[in-house]
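Annotated sample (chain length 203).
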Amino acid sequence: MRVVCPGSFDPVTNGHLDIITRAAATWDEVTVLVTYNPNKNGLFTAEERADLIRRSLADHVGSGGVTVDGGAGDGAAGDGVAGDNTAGYSTAGNGAGATPAAPRGRITVDTWDRLLVDYLTEHGVTAMVKGLRSSLDYEYELPMAQMNRRLSGADTYFLFTNPRYGYVSSTLCKEVARYGGDVTGLLPEPVVEAVTRKFAAGS
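Output written by the structure step:
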């Protein structure tokens, strides 16, 4: 079964990676879908975000046989036409002494600039997975899950975030990094480097 893990991922955090790899331990294929508004400027472009996700996943997974594929982008099916590399899974950094099941499925990365339900319908996806850090996330996600169900018939599955990442968000990490704070351990290493370069260049 294929599920979509949607988000803006500007940029991807270690909390995101935790949800993505845990989803891959449950479902056969997980498509990480970078959703974006072309009329709004983020810190990274959609393709930069997708590339950072691929690179971060390649570092994060280690020996369990998960395949990290790159999608064609801009609404393509994300079926591994670019940036293909095989990796497995490492429990390093998951915290709380937990040893999650090794991912069994394939992880693909894609981008999309229209309604999420349009992607689900066009690609025949019937389920999504989202992470919940707190009851505030639940209150925000519930009406969207209900609307997506009404429009596309897709179910939304929620995974509770690892407690060590319960306070981590892309916005908070960007604010800390903007003023020179250390975000090591909160963002994947490729993202820490990319964020540092962006702010050093005056973004």
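Annotation: Strands lie at 2-7, 29-35, 66-70, 82-87, 106-112, 127-132, 155-160.
Annotation: Helices lie at 14-24, 46-60, 116-122, 135-152, 170-178, 189-200.
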